[in-house]
Amino acid sequence: MSQYFKTEVSIELICGDASFRRYFRVKHLANSYIVSDSPIELVPIMPFIYMAKAYEKAGLIAPKIIAQDELNGFVLQSDLGDEQLLNQLNEHSATDLYRKALALLPKVATVTETEQGVLPVYDQAFVARELDIFTEWLLIKHLGLTLSHSDKKIIEHAFSVLTTSALEQPSVGMHRDFHSRNILVVDNELALIDFQDAVLGPVTYDAVSLLRDCYIKWPNEIIDSLKQEHWQLCLQQGLMSNNVTFTQYQTWFDLMGLQRHVKAAGIFARLNHRDGKAGYLKDIPLTLTYIVEVAALYPQLHQFGDWVKQHVLPKVNCA
Question: What integer best gives the mean pLDDT of the chain?
Fold first, then answer.
């Protein structure tokens, strides 16, 4: 029997992601599957399973759950391939592909609960935990900065502005990691992965994750046009009140993007120091550059943007 499985089954480690999970491609005869391996004390598998089923029910393409071993942290799922949206993006294709991805968000927004219950809420404490990653892991751990009282006040004020903006937005079902590496192209359709951290949160968050990607940057004219389209889509789908002007939406979008990049810069540093994944350090400068550029547009964030530009970005570029 063991000889039969040796010849009929192949197992290949295909990747690990930014968490503690590992993924394997398992082939048996003409069939291909993905097996995820999660240390259950750190990464429970049920949120992923519940979200996969909820997304499928909402008409989204997601991995189909075939079998699960909750005790040991294994999930056998359908194989959607390796073709990330990121691989197909260029200046000619970006607008159409992003538009296609944005069109998924109204369905994502409808998924506010699973068999497990209502999704967690992206509330003030949640935002604070995310922002604190920047201070703890990037500023203090990675760069070794000693923050003065003045530095702390600048950071606290900026974080307060970002939190207020996030929490005043309409709340919808949110993928929370909706970017070009977590969207797969399958037979010219778009499929979603890595959605186990979904929450109820700000209506602009997923659009920001996509259009202000931490891994790739596009000209402002492309992004500005797509922002306008997402605003209109939200109005049409009833995700925002008709009273929300594009100016208000744009402020929400920009500050949400700034908040997400603050968090991402901290996470990239944490991945290096805590998890031994140094490859993410190269993505920090782009996140900081975005922070500086957006903060310059909003007077209430000028001090923070200038502080990052003078005290953080040069040290990261030299690290």
Answer: 93
